[in-house]
Amino acid sequence: MSTHAAASKLWTQAELDRLTVESNFRLRGLEVTRLDTFIDAAFAFVLTMLVISFDEIPTNYDEMMVAIKRIPGFATSFAIIMMFWLQHRVWSRRYGLENRQTLVLSLALIFVLLVYVYPLRIMFEEFYATLSDGYFAASFEIESESQLRDMLLFYSGGFSAMSLLVSLLYSAAIRNADTLALNEVECRRTRLRVHAWAIACAFSLFSIVLALVLPEGNVVIAGYVYFLMFPATQVPVIIDRMRHPVD
Q: pTM, whole model, 2 decimals?
């Protein structure tokens, strides 16, 4: 049985009953499509860029130590990229929804990611270098508050765009709820994802505003906004669990 659905596919109850269930969610997209393969390959390519774009193979001990001191920046960048990949994977497995709109949104996500990978690595390497007073290495040196402001705008612009695209993908699933035969629990959990990623987008936009208006010396505050973003995205989930402790 084909599990990956186009928008026009109508699920029968017999088909729904045979679907794999994960965390009380029926997985309609377990069949891997060419789009899934392309997206996975694109994320893998971005990770390759993350590793090799800034570095060469160390040729002596000192160069090896510099490379090692860049690991925290790489690890955090890796985690952010994997967060978006996992979200798209969850979305694809749960809904198997492949139509013109979701195709455009998925390809747009890859496009933004390819542009976003450079400021992502730069920002986290600089963050750890500053936090450690230069102990951790940075391959790109930000020399002024003006440059920091620009890099924060690049970073926040990429993060906000990707968060918005993920939110729109989940919104597309809601709009196709009847076609996908989403039950009440599945609809509610889908809306939670829409809200969580909308919150992430809002925090990124707030960071952009701060980066634009804060005076020199305080621009870095625009970056610290992200420490509040992650707990904020969990607020809708916590409220939902309090209202529906059984699901």
A: 0.90
